[in-house]
Amino acid sequence: MGLWSQLLLQNLGINPANIGFSTLTMESDKFICIREKAGEQAQVTIIDMSDPMAPIRRPISAESAIMNPASKVIALKGKPDGIVRKESYLTFTAVLP
């Protein structure tokens, strides 16, 4: 069994501060999702490991995000802007056709 580096997320423009268990999720060997900020704008960056040099960035604010490994659908957990509640909600959004 060996361990090797597939890619460096910093080379894709990911801030090293956003590389951790609280901001990054991996779904098997297919997708990586990173929640980050671009300036003041929250965004989710999706890396499809079949084409890792073409990350997909979407202006999405979420508490957590993970990709479906079988299709390009993202699961998001969060609260809508302007809503003041303790509980969160879960929504699914298609990322690509």
TrEMBL record:
GO MF entry, a single one: clathrin light chain binding
A matching Pfam family: Clathrin_propel
GO cellular component, one term: extracellular exosome
Cited InterPro entries: Clathrin_H-chain_N, Clathrin_H-chain_propeller_rpt
GO biological process, one term: intracellular protein transport
SUPFAM superfamilies: Clathrin heavy-chain terminal domain
PANTHER family the UniProt entry points to: CLATHRIN HEAVY CHAIN 2 (PTHR10292:SF6), CLATHRIN HEAVY CHAIN RELATED (PTHR10292)
This protein's name: Uncharacterized protein
